[in-house]
Design brief:
Layout: E1 14-19, E2 25-27, E3 30-32, H1 37-47, E4 52-57, H2 63-75, E5 81-83
Parallel strand pairs: 1-4, 4-5
Antiparallel strand pairs: 1-2, 2-3
């Protein structure tokens, strides 16, 4: 559950990482390996210093993969992370 919600106006700054229930990682439009995230996101951060990473994780995914992705983003100095959630109706 979200405690606060913030709408991001400039969508150009956002890179999306999706994690499926099977552990498959998709970064924007490409399926990637965990070890490739740091290199890709570091290059993206150099091009767009204010890049925001939006994580969209399947609720049945293991928390370990989320932690591993967070570590790779930290190594790439991508520290602006947004966790997307479904609206609870």
């Amino acid at each position: 559950e979200a405690k606060a919600i913030e709408k991001i106006e400039n969508k150009r700054l956002i890179s999306y990482i999706w994690v499926g229930y099977d552990g498959r990682i998709q970064l924007n439009d490409s399926i990637v390996k965990l070890e490739d995230i740091q290199k890709i996101m570091y290059a993206k951060r150099l091009a767009l210093p204010n890049v925001i990473v939006s994580l969209r994780i399947d609720k049945n995914s293991e928390m370990g993969i989320v932690t591993d992705i967070q570590q790779e983003l930290r190594k790439a100095s991508c520290l602006r992370i947004n966790y997307s959630a479904m609206l609870k109706i």
